[in-house]
Design a protein that fits this description.
This protein has one domain. 79% of the residues lie in helices and 0% in strands. It is built from 6 helices and no strands. The relative contact order is 0.11.
């Protein structure tokens, strides 16, 4: 995602940068907008990716509905497993296609714009760090809300914390 947000101005600036004045963190002023966009797109992709994976409530619902009828439970679980297998196969195919396209884009972009390689690596590391910090903050917020809901005996706070999950 990071490479999609390199603008002509940034590439031009990288080409004309003075190597002596350049330090490790000098990419940050050039990359703030790109880092923000890439982080937002990564969060959206993470949300979309979650649709491919199992919803715990769906399995619980099957067990609750069919707890007295074992043959129906087996039939519904087999159907669910087939659906899950299809989802995973589709997910793997989509991810493989995206990885191949991304690899080709990466190779071509860095071949055409060789001065952007170090900038790309630095900003990619920064994005990974930002994503980890955001994940940590989300966990802290969720845990704090659950603790407060327990202390205040507030079901609303607990539901808000479940929404963040």
């Amino acid at each position: 995602m990071n490479g999609l947000f390199f603008s002509e101005e940034v590439i031009s600036e990288l080409y004309n940068v003075d190597e002596e004045k350049e330090n490790f963190f000098s990419f940050i002023p050039r990359s703030i907008e790109r880092l923000l966009y890439t982080t937002l797109v990564s969060i959206i992709i993470g949300i979309i990716t979650n649709f491919f994976f199992v919803n715990e409530n769906k399995i619980k619902g099957i067990f609750k509905r069919e707890k007295n009828d074992v043959p129906s439970l087996k039939r519904n679980m087999l159907k669910f497993m087939k659906d899950l297998r299809k989802r995973y196969i589709i997910f793997i195919i989509i991810v493989t296609i995206i990885l191949i396209i991304s690899f080709l884009y990466l190779l071509c972009f860095n071949y055409v714009y060789p001065y952007s390689q170090i900038e790309w690596i630095k900003s990619s590391i920064a994005i990974m760090i930002i994503m980890q910090i955001l994940s940590f903050l989300k966990c802290i917020l969720e845990t704090s809300l659950r603790y407060l809901s327990y202390k205040c005996k507030s079901e609303k706070l607990y539901k808000i914390s479940m929404f963040l999950d």
